[in-house]
């Protein structure tokens, strides 16, 4: 499950090509000579998908072995390239987060952008690495995972409590035997005491 | 659970005997005297009419709940059969479809028979339970009763009633799931049987196809994963015309294909997103309720075992008391023996004196 690239674009309504505002990609698993072409490809596909996404809509497109998820919110568009295993919901919550972060850090300045910005945005790069594991992006997934772990632990606990119950059972038996035996012992002692008083 | 019950009747008998010896119980009932005298009689011999009926009803309830569990398993299996049949239809394997649907039909027959049986059982059980209630009232109205007996009867009746209610609720759940299955099956049948598949190909926008270079052509084939839920209606519905049109058009203008599918998908995609979120939330909620159930289960088990621990403690205290008493008795014995030596010497001296006198007499 991996994310290959994350893009933030400004989608001008149907007139021109979208403008790339931020770009982060992880091309380490390609050969050295393929990297630049892959980056170009990412930029190009990102632009196309973003231009096709109507405002306030989410979209997922399958392209070769990637799924491209796009979320357009009032002209600000986030596009993510993920592989097929990445759960769709986490992808979209991740895109949501990216957009929120972008708006927080850059306010409304992006509306005036006319050319692709080449400045890297560090948040996007670290988001790319951090969210390789979908649980990070999607709180629900994280919660579900933790709950499942807790359930497993609880099952083990119940098993050990059952074993404890059995041991307590055996202890009860033994202690009742012990009390019987001590009672016999007491009676015996009293008997030996009572008979030889004459002597 | 390990031992859901403990047979402590032997302890109870011994306790009652010890108490009798001490004289703490005034023997009210003649039955108790009979029990005390005939120790060898097995503890279950004093089963009254009420007890016999109650045990029979309990057995029948147990059988009915087993049947309901079997019914639940049958309905679950039928869901699997539905899915299998759908998968095989997608692969156009009609022979297998026929086989699967025949199995599914047999299941319905079996399910219906079982439901009828279970319903009859439940009505019979209801009647038996009301009989039991009247029997209890009769026995109480006899006049010669103790509070414990009344408590016992009411407890048994309540227990049986709750068990019967649980069984009926289970049956209801199973029947609702079965009706849902039927509905889902009907829906899926409709989905595949309509020849008018939803796609009227919109006027393909030729202007956009121009700037798209060939690398996009490879996007045609794998459309598969995301678009599969919508393509089967396309494929199975038209079969030849529309699907092949689409496929032939793909090489020329893959972007058009994508646009069309995108048009179809944007609305379902929005729904899917929120739906999947709702589903995930539901699963989280159900997991949490499961966890709470497990916790309560754990708590009950621990309290039950707490009682065991108390018993162990009591036993140990008792054995401690006994051992202390025995020790003191033995100590007394020891002191008596050790202190009595002086007396023993005197006694032996007297005996030897007698012997000497005796010898003197004889010789």
Describe this protein's structure.
Chain A: It is found in: Cell membrane. The complex is a heterodimer of chains A (199) and B (363). Chain A has 5 helices and 5 strands, in the order E-E-H-E-E-E-H-H-H-H. A 5-stranded antiparallel sheet of chain A has the order 2-1-5-4-3, with helices on both faces. With 199 residues, chain A is an alpha+beta fold. The radius of gyration of chain A is 34 Å and the shape is rod-shaped. In chain A, a hairpin with a 2-residue loop joins strand 4 and strand 5 (76-83). By secondary structure, chain B is mostly helical. Chain B has helices at 9-22, 30-37, 49-90, 94-141, 147-193, 206-209, 224-227, 231-238, 241-252, 254-339, 341-362. Chain B is elongated. Chain B starts with 8 loop residues before the first helix and ends with a helix. Residues 28-45, 94-101, 195-244 and 246-254 of chain B have low confidence and may be disordered. At the A-B interface, helix 1, strand 3, helix 2 and helix 5 of A face helix 7, helix 10 and helix 11 of B.
